[in-house]
Amino acid sequence: MNVYESIKASLVASASGMPPSLAVEFGRKVLYPLHRPSFSELEQAVRGR
């Protein structure tokens, strides 16, 4: 599943020392375009707005 690949990409990026926001961006880029949230949608979700 592509969701697991997204989680894996985020975890690997985080373990490599990337800041959390960049690690999440790596995971977002792995998702299929149909299911990928925009950067602003993701930012709002992470910040809880």
Features:
3 helices, 49 residues, mainly alpha
Draw up the topology in text.
Layout: H1 2-15, H2 20-30, H3 39-47
Helix content: 55-70%
**Could you name the ranges where pLDDT drops below 50 across 5 or more consecutive residues?**
none
Give the total of domains: 1
Radius of gyration: 11 Å
What is the beta-strand fraction? under 5%
Mean pLDDT: 91
Specify the overall morphology. flat
- State the end-to-end CA separation: 28 Å
Largest sheet: none
Tell how many strands the DSSP assignment holds: 0
* Count of alpha/pi helices: 3
Q: What class would the helix/strand composition place it in?
A: mainly alpha
Secondary-structure element sequence?
Answer: HHH
Account of the protein in words:
- By secondary structure, this protein is an all-alpha fold.
- The chain has one domain (2-47).
- Helix content is 69%, strand content 0%.
- It is built from 3 helices and no strands.
- It has helices spanning 2-15, 20-30, 39-47.
- Helix 1 runs antiparallel to helix 2 (20-30).
- The chain is flat.
- The chain starts with a helix and ends with a helix.
- 8% of the residues are buried.
- The mean pLDDT is 91.
